[in-house]
Amino acid sequence: QVQLVESGGGLVQAGGSLRLSCAVSGRTLSNYRMAWFRQAPGKEREFVAAIRWSGGMTYYSDSVKGRFTISRDNAKNTVYLQMNSLKPEDTAVYYCAARKVVDREYDYWGQGTQVTVSS
């Protein structure tokens, strides 16, 4: 079983930055892919970014590429999402998720953290 706990959300002005953290516990993650998703009010949940724990390969949605950076700290078992140049349309609940690299669906989800960007 994998437990995910997000933190770091908050209120920020447009153009500002936030760093989200996802603390992972429960098992080793060498064969896992970690991701951030977000869901704005009235919208479907959307993929934001992902990282393979082993090797560190990263993936981004077009809407955040060049502004957001996903990373992981092996020693702390934590995944980060550095968000720069934030826009009001980035406002959403951000969720951390995990799945085995060989799987297609994300099996484990955090509780979410609210990010609000004011104009």
In short:
With 119 residues, this protein is mostly beta strands. It has strands at 3-7, 10-13, 18-25, 32-39, 46-52, 58-60, 68-73, 78-83, 92-100, 108-109, 113-118.
Can you give a write-up of this model?
The chain starts with a strand and ends with a strand. It contains no helices and eleven strands. A hairpin with a 7-residue loop joins strand 9 (92-100) and strand 10. The strands form two sheets. Strands 2, 4, 5, 6, 9, 10 and 11 form a seven-stranded mixed sheet that branches. Strands 1-3-8-7 form a four-stranded antiparallel sheet, with no helix packed on it. With 119 residues, the chain is mainly beta.
What percentage of amino acids are in beta strands? over 45%
Measured as a percent range, the helix fraction is: under 10%
Mean pLDDT: 95
Number-wise, the strands total 11
The largest sheet, given as strand count, sense and whether it forms a barrel, is: 7 strands, mixed
As a whole number of angstroms, the C-alpha radius of gyration is: 13 Å
Q: State the oligomer.
A: single chain
Structural features:
119 residues; mainly beta; seven-stranded mixed sheet; four-stranded antiparallel sheet
Task: Describe how the helices and strands are arranged.
Blueprint: E1 3-7, E2 10-13, E3 18-25, E4 32-39, E5 46-52, E6 58-60, E7 68-73, E8 78-83, E9 92-100, E10 108-109, E11 113-118
Parallel strand pairs: 2-11
Antiparallel strand pairs: 1-3, 3-8, 4-5, 4-9, 5-6, 7-8, 9-10, 9-11
